């Protein structure tokens, strides 16, 4: 299955883009997506192990099951003011 | 929120607030509530500027403002409550003057201090609504915990580059900041506005959202951002929102909270929780500093030291210590490029102001580099004390 992965703020710098289509095995969960991104040999290896994730704009714990076509947003904390 | 019936508006007030008095959800009773309200604005910077100005114009009776800083020329591109003539003045003073100009009916209570665990609860306790317009994680966590403990709504906003976030964290009605971000991010993911840049108008938008939410809370009008995180992207000009949940395991507002008093997070922030067990060791061995004049005299004596600039390439372009042998390894690249450095060498780590380089130096010491110094005050202080031809930014 393919999930549309969106990156915000500092995570965009790590991804080098604001959006990636990521292919995952059937049955994959949020944690699997994060693990795959971290293991890709890119700057995304700096992602936290459990970043804040929203699936279809709902807060999603790491164990949330993903489905083909889901939109997954990775949202970093931002401190500026 | 307010129990007693406040006194009627004066003719002068009725004229000033005429467009509110005919507005559904405000009217004379709502305007009187605004006048009786006490709102605390923490930070008179990018976010605090529009928040304080709009709340003052709207007729909020008492504005508390917390800021210890002084107006700097680099603030003016976005901190619109301060003017060119205010450079060098305390932000509290220029904010007070501007608010008096906008609306003399508003009472300003100033707190010229950096919020700490010693005073955060007491200050927050005296207000109905709190606005988080701070610019750093330690104060954001401190403020969240103080608001949870005191049962106050925390109107949150934060900005970076072209993007912003806003929400209302109110433990009595929904999640708090820690339900979302339980732990601070690792240091290399934490640029502030000085390091990451920020589009000047961005805090105007996010701060105006915060001001709106604060007014709605006082007026008990509409639906606030409780339980929703608003994500604004100015480049795409898009507002998205993420639905949040209370975390039953939240350390601040969960079923078994472990935070019973606000904690000073200066020590904690910038250190990922995975590394928390190493935290004390890291901080007990504070990285030794070297002043620019000391570095200059050592270089002049021909001593062998290696200056490592951990800023971004575009910052290097503005001015650098290349003539002094400095080499550029941006902070993000340091973990993958530290093998370019010799652990036997004496390393002077340098950035713009000394904050990023302190994190980099701490990281290198963790990795076994023994002879590491942080250049105190960064290239800004080098420009002040050694070489004024280096532009400041």
Characterization of this structure:
- The complex is a heterodimer of chains A (81) and B (393).
- Chain A has 81 residues and is an alpha+beta fold.
- Chain A has one domain (2-75): Ubiquitin-like (UB roll) (Roll).
- Chain A has helices at residues 10-15, 30-38; strands spanning 2-7, 19-23, 52-55, 58-59, 71-75.
- In chain A, β3 and β4 (58-59) form a beta hairpin.
- In chain A, 42% of the residues are buried.
- Chain B is of the alpha/beta class.
- Chain B contains 16 helices and 13 strands.
- Chain B has an 8-stranded mixed sheet, with helices on both faces. In chain B, strands 9-13-12-10-11 form a 5-stranded parallel sheet.
- In chain B, β7 (228-233) and β8 form a beta hairpin.
- In chain B, α4 (48-58) runs parallel beside α5 and α4 crosses α10.
- Residues 267-285 of chain B have low confidence and may be disordered.
Q: Summed up, what is this model?
A:
The complex is a heterodimer of chains A (81) and B (393). With 81 residues, chain A is an alpha+beta fold.
* N-to-C span of chain B: 45 Å
Report the top-level CATH class of chain A. Answer: Alpha Beta
Structural class of chain A: alpha+beta
Number of helices of chain B: 16
Mean pLDDT of chain B, to the nearest integer, reads 90
Q: What helical percentage do the residues of chain B reach?
A: 25-40%
Straight-line N-to-C gap of chain A: 39 Å
Examine the coordinates and then state which fold CATH places here, giving the name of the CATH topology of chain A: Ubiquitin-like (UB roll)
If you compute it from the alpha carbons, what radius of gyration of chain A comes out, rounded to the nearest whole angstrom?
A: 12 Å
- Write down the overall mean pLDDT of chain A: 94
